[in-house]
Amino acid sequence: MIPKSSYRPLSSISKAAISCYNMGNASCARARNQAFAVQPLRRIVAASMQGEEHLEGSITDKGENTMNETHAIRRFILRVLACLVLTAAMLAAVPGKSPWINTVSAAPMTGWVRQNNQIYYYDGAGAMALGLKVINGRNFYFSTDAASRGVLRTGLVNIGGTEYYFKKNGKAGVIGRGVNGWVNIKPRGYCYCINGVIQKQNVIDDYYLNPDGSMTSASRKMYKLVKKTVNQLTTNAMNQEQKLRACYEYLCSDTFTYITKRPFSYAPTWRLVYGYEMLTTHSGVCYNFSASLAYMARYIGYRDVKAIAGELLYLDGHWDLHSWTKIMIGGTWYVFDSSMEHGGMGDFWKKTYAGTGRKYREWDHL
Asked: Whole-prediction pTM value?
């Protein structure tokens, strides 16, 4: 006779697996995975156990106090069959039905996991990620606090005195990653991030910054104006160069007037001043044209962009002050001289210096 106490109830397997899952221990990976698989399989096992319950009932009705050897063997077989059904179903289950978790696997749990509306990450060995981690080249931060151990952090986070900003939404592998580029961190304002690290130097992309990394008031006004202008001129269906072309042709159009208002200012902030003036008054000189196009090009996504102050050799043989925009595309620097094209001096869209048919001379100090 096989004693009933020697069998471990199926419910205890489920409870143990769920308890182990909550512990976050890599050694309990199999049990954690079983916790997810056991629940939907209860009905399968219950069906196999019905025969056993019926058998016990018939014995009780007859008033028998002991189970004979034949019944013990049948009882044992039913138990084995129930375990085989459960095991076969678990092995046949298809992992990965959830984008967050590998639901059935004998190996340690790895990758992104969502539990109780929180997000965790387990490395290839099944260890929970803690602290600042680089995943696929991007920074992520997982809490090291006892109350929220391993939870993916988003938004503004101070790590050892360095401020980071992590994306607040998106799918697995996107939410929580360090932001690149400009981001509006309320109530601070627009800040520039590189893989989540908030930059705090004086100037980025000709936008000037406060000590906390946010844009100055003048820079913020310019950024919002550039954003509004580009969004009015472009559509999501356009590729990057088509968007740049739309902005260039806008500056070359009759919307703008070439007019000299004052001598050129050599102040370090000349690009910000002249660019803002151009997009608000729709008038200016070559410095206004070049600066405004540079700001719009950066907003579109071009990284290597310069509004150049220098000189141009005119057709009558004299050098004179001039300004133009220079953008690197595919590893090559190209000239975009919107003020010359606006004045009817030829085609100056995306030309190498040699391709313009003119001679330019850059001033390195500006």
From this structure: 0.69
